[in-house]
Structure formats: structure tokens, C-alpha cells
Automatic annotation (TrEMBL):
Keyword Coiled coil: no
Single GO MF descriptor: beta-glucosidase activity
Keywords recorded for this protein, A-Z: Glycosidase, Hydrolase
Protein name: Glycoside hydrolase family 1 protein
Catalytic site: 368 (nucleophile)
Gene Ontology CC, one term: cytosol
Length: 475
């Protein structure tokens, strides 16, 4: 067997991924309103603040708002064919419920797209990436309120009208299934999680799903060449043992995430999901129009993030939850973990790709995958860099498995590494949890020059792209 990986298909979309709130900064510039991220100075793990605070690194982040041209040029130097970024909803509609958009915000993304076009980089745009306008969270309780469907439709229509001739690939919501675990960050729901009823939570889920279908409908009207995808958090669940009860526990957990793809692709709620609602005493308020939207406006492709797999068991005595995994699950005794406790499972990515392809028969797009680690800036031959062999090994091993899935017959559109340039972590709001090929000189206290330095992985990824994966090495 060859020690190298067969090249990926021609036209494979290699690139990197970011989110507005984690890179842009300029939180009060250009007419931008506040988003929920402006009151989450410590990330998802701590209670929200009353208002913006000076210790929120996202206020400046890595200053992409002013340095976008430099950063996109660096992406082009690596050979990016696509760049995934999100549009900050509160830059376009500062409160979220205005009748007219903010021109300054729209013009900023025009400039970002100009740079992408200049370098031949295909944009991949996320419409809503954990950036609900704060006003919608505080005055409407976020997606619990059906009014948000209309506000989101207006926002999406503006985006498709303004950028539809320039952007082919769109994602409606980032990790839409994460609202079950992080209702404020993912759904803009102000009601504290421990006080949020199951009925309100699942009604919020329904409203987001309908809004996603409605955005797909609008795209086909306004920008018929656009391709619209859903985006889900993929986290395969393995049974901790062959005990049939453990197998069933794993299946039940898997279905929690799979339901979101089932609804986006098949256009209706699966039976197992309806049973879950019945047993939780939830009776969704669903209109005939809702049903028609879901059924008639399914997605063109399925995108997902992949970082970890988990195990599940029916035995309460064995339910030791993984420390770094904010979405639960039992640690796998056969896997090692990152510095933040996220278990590393490259084969799990091949499992997910095959599972999703077999289930949905829709093109798949891996739009987040990467390793958060503490990097050390050093000098090598007079050049400041980071010798991040650990990141290279992580990405290499995951991409080998993507190649295996393609050989299995899975239709994979592309791969964008998460945090292709260092950014502020969503889970911990740290800059020390670095993912990028490009080191940004800023620390967790906000000190630093914001200068950019290429890590060792920068040239490694450039070679992977240039060879369409032929430079990847099997273990």
C-alpha cells in the first residue's frame, strides 16, 4: 500500500473558516449594533454580562475589520480556493428588527468580497454564526419568538440581493443543533437555561428550522445560482460496550444531532424526534405554511463541523463526562485528548462522512475541523514562527480519513479548517487556544502588536492544497 494519499477530486474546495465575532473586532464601528457576543466576555462557559465589558477580547479580536486585505492575501498565498466567513447580523441590522439595513455594514462585506475576488477565492458565507443581535435576545427572547423568522428573512433577503451574484455557497445557521446545549449563544434565548422550558426550547428550534427553509426559498428567488446548505455539529456517538442498551444509548444520542440534518434534507420531522417531543410533553405550534416550507425548500448540501467523537452508555455508574467536551458524552478509553480535553479521533471523521452520505445522499462539506493548542512563537533561521508539528499531525490524520471517505464513494465538496488564522475561542473566549496557520500576536489579556506570523503549518497546508492532498502521509 502506498504511504501517500490519492489526490482529492478536481475542484475540491480547500480553505479555512472563521466567524465574524471571533475575528473582526470593531464591535462599535461602522454602525454596528451589539450582538449577544458583546455580553459573553468569557465565552459559553460563564454567565452573560449586563453589557459590554473591557475584558471581552472580541471587542478587538484580531482586528480583521481593518486588516482583512492582509489576511485574505495570506490565505491566497496558501492557495485557498474558498474562505468561510460569517456576516455579523448586527452590522447589517444593528437591532435586528429595523425596516432598512445599515449601508456601512453592507459596504464592509463588499470590500471583503472584493479581496476574495481579487485572489480568486470562492466565498462561503454563514448568515448567522452565534451572532444574534442583542436587542432580539433581550426584547424577544431570541428564537423562542416566532417574530424572529420574519426578521431573519428580511436580513437574508438583503444579503442575497446584495451579494447573490458574488457568492455561490451559503450556510443558514452555524451548528444549528447546538441550540439544545447553548440556547443563549446559539439561539439568542435570554431565559436562563435552567429556567427554559422544553416547550420553549423546541419551539425555538422549530422557528430556526423554518427560517432556514425560508432563507433557502428566498435564495432561489433572488439568487437562483446560489447553493444553500445547513450546518450541523457532527459528533458521532459510539457505544461504550457491546451491551445492546449501550448501543441504544449511542443511537439515541446520535439521533439528537441527526434530526437536524433529517429535517433539512427530507423536509419533515422524523418519527423518533416526534416521539422525543411527546415524551417531553412538548406540543409544537406548527402551521401548514411551516410544513410546506420545510418540505418544499430542502438544502442543496449538508455542511458540518467535526472535532470530537464521544461514547455513550446506559449504565449511570459509567457516565463519567469528558472534561473538555461542552456537549457531554462519555470519554473513549482508546483515544487521547487535546490540551482542552477534546478527544482526537480522525477515523470518526470518516465514520461521519459515510454515515451522512448513506443517510442523505447530499454533497457534504466539512466546514470546521481543527486543533486548539497553546502555540509558542519562536525564531527559526531569523524568522519568527511557530513549530506546530502537533497541528500538522492532527490535520494530516483527519485529511487522510477524508480521502478514505472519498474513496468509499462519499461526495465531499470541500474542507475548511477552523480558525485558519488565530481567533478568539467561542467556548472559552481565549486567544491562547489557537487553531490557525497564522499566529496573531495578541494574548488573553489583550496585549500584543496584532502582527501576523506564518506557522510551520502554513507551508504544509499550502503544499496539501497545491498537490490536492497527494502530499498527505498515512500513519
Amino acid at each position: 500500500m502506498s504511504s501517500t494519499v490519492a489526490p482529492f477530486p478536481e475542484g475540491f474546495l480547500w480553505g479555512g473558516a472563521t466567524a465574524a465575532n471571533q475575528i473582526e473586532g470593531a464591535y462599535a464601528e461602522g454602525g454596528k449594533g451589539l450582538s449577544i457576543q458583546d455580553v459573553m466576555p468569557q465565552g459559553i462557559m460563564t454567565p452573560r454580562a449586563e453589557g459590554p465589558t473591557a475584558d471581552n477580547l472580541k471587542q478587538v479580536a484580531i482586528d480583521f475589520y481593518h486588516r482583512y486585505a492582509q489576511d485574505i492575501a495570506l490565505f491566497a498565498e496558501m492557495g485557498f480556493r474558498t474562505f468561510r466567513f460569517s456576516i455579523a447580523w448586527s452590522r447589517i441590522f444593528p437591532r435586528g428588527d429595523e425596516a432598512e439595513p445599515n449601508e456601512e455594514g453592507l459596504a464592509f462585506y463588499d470590500r471583503v468580497l472584493d479581496e476574495c475576488e481579487k485572489h480568486g477565492i470562492e466565498p462561503l458565507v454563514t448568515i448567522s454564526h452565534y451572532e444574534t443581535p442583542l436587542h432580539l435576545a433581550e426584547q424577544y427572547d431570541g428564537w423562542v419568538n416566532r417574530d424572529l423568522i420574519g426578521f431573519y428573512e428580511r436580513y437574508a433577503r438583503v444579503l442575497f440581493s446584495r451579494y447573490g451574484h458574488r457568492v455561490t455557497y451559503w450556510l443558514t445557521f452555524n451548528e444549528i443543533n447546538s441550540v439544545l446545549h447553548a440556547p443563549f449563544m446559539s439561539g439568542g434565548i435570554s431565559t436562563p437555561k435552567d429556567q427554559l422550558s422544553a416547550s420553549d426550547l423546541y419551539q425555538a428550534v422549530h422557528h430556526e428550522l423554518v427560517a432556514s427553509a425560508l432563507a433557502t426559498k428566498v435564495a432561489r428567488e433572488v439568487a437562483p445560482q446560489a447553493q444553500v446548505g445547513c450546518m450541523i455539529l457532527a459528533m458521532p456517538a459510539y457505544p461504550l460496550s457491546p451491551d445492546p442498551d449501550d448501543v441504544m444509548a449511542a443511537l439515541t444520542t446520535d439521533r439528537t444531532n441527526l434530526a437536524f440534518g433529517d429535517i433539512h434534507v427530507r423536509g419533515e420531522y422524523p418519527g423518533y424526534y416526534l416521539r422525543r417531543l411527546r415524551e417531553a410533553g412538548v406540543e409544537l405550534q406548527i402551521t401548514d405554511e411551516d410544513r410546506a416550507l420545510l418540505k418544499e425548500h430542502t438544502v442543496d448540501f449538508v455542511s458540518f463541523s467535526y472535532y470530537v467523537s464521544i461514547c455513550e452508555t446506559a449504565d449511570p455508574a459509567k457516565r463519567v463526562v469528558g472534561q473538555g467536551n461542552i456537549f457531554g458524552g462519555v470519554p473513549n478509553p482508546h483515544l487521547q485528548a487535546s490540551e482542552w480535553g477534546w478527544q482526537i479521533d480522525p477515523v470518526g471523521l470518516r465514520v461521519v462522512l459515510n454515515q451522512f452520505w448513506d443517510r442523505w445522499q447530499k454533497p457534504l462539506f466539512i466546514v470546521e475541523n481543527g486543533l486548539g493548542a497553546k502555540d509558542e512563537l519562536v525564531e527559526v533561521d531569523g524568522v519568527r514562527t511557530v513549530v506546530d508539528d502537533y497541528r500538522i499531525a492532527y490535520l494530516n490524520d483527519h485529511l487522510v480519513q477524508v480521502g478514505e471517505a472519498i474513496a468509499d464513494g462519499v461526495d465531499v465538496m470541500g474542507y475548511t479548517t477552523w480558525g485558519c488564522i488565530d481567533l478568539v475561542s467561542a467556548s472559552t473566549a481565549q486567544l491562547s487556544k489557537r487553531y490557525g496557520f497564522i499566529y496573531v500576536d495578541r494574548d488573553d489579556e489583550g496585549a500584543g502588536t496584532l502582527e501576523r506570523y506564518k506557522k510551520k503549518s502554513f507551508d504544509w497546508y499550502a503544499e496539501v492544497i497545491a498537490t490536492d492532498g497527494a502530499s498527505l502521509r498515512r500513519a
